[in-house]
């Protein structure tokens, strides 16, 4: 399964899920750093929100189950994509400030 397909349902709610933080990439990495998606951390993110849409909880649960079923190499590929996106995001922010 392609990484975009895996996380697409969660990405649709990313602005809501990661609103309380300035480091969305760090939060993504915290969720997928281990061999299983960190559900405790995900629930912590949800608890910071004033209201949780049932669709967000379901999307997160589905993504967790799909991530957990990936082979180790596929999980590592996803982590590298997040790191690469973070690097591009930071570089874009630096050039935009000039």
Give a short synopsis of this structure.
By secondary structure, the protein is an all-alpha fold. 73% of the residues lie in helices and 0% in strands.
Would you give an account of this structure?
The chain has one domain (3-96). The protein contains six helices and no strands. It has helices spanning 3-11, 14-17, 24-32, 39-47, 54-69, 72-96. Helix 1 runs antiparallel to helix 5 (54-69) and helix 3 (24-32) runs antiparallel to helix 6. The model has no long low-confidence stretch (mean pLDDT 83).
Helix content estimate: over 70%
- Secondary-structure element sequence? HHHHHH
Unreliable spans are none
How does the overall form come out from the CA principal axes? Answer: globular
Overall pLDDT level? 83
Outline the fold blueprint.
Elements lengths: L2 H9 L2 H4 L6 H9 L6 H9 L6 H16 L2 H25 L2
Helix pairs in contact: 1-5, 3-6
List keywords for this structure.
single chain; 98 residues; 6 helices
């Amino acid at each position: 399964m392609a990484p975009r397909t895996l996380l697409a349902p969660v990405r649709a709610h990313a602005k809501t899920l990661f609103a309380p933080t300035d480091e969305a990439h760090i939060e993504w990495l915290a969720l997928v750093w281990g061999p299983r998606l960190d559900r405790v951390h995900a629930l912590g993110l949800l608890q910071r929100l004033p209201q949780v849409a049932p669709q967000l909880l379901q999307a997160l649960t589905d993504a967790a189950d799909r991530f957990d079923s990936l082979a180790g190499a596929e999980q590592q590929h996803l982590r590298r994509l997040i790191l690469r996106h973070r690097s591009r995001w930071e570089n874009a922010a630096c050039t935009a400030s000039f």
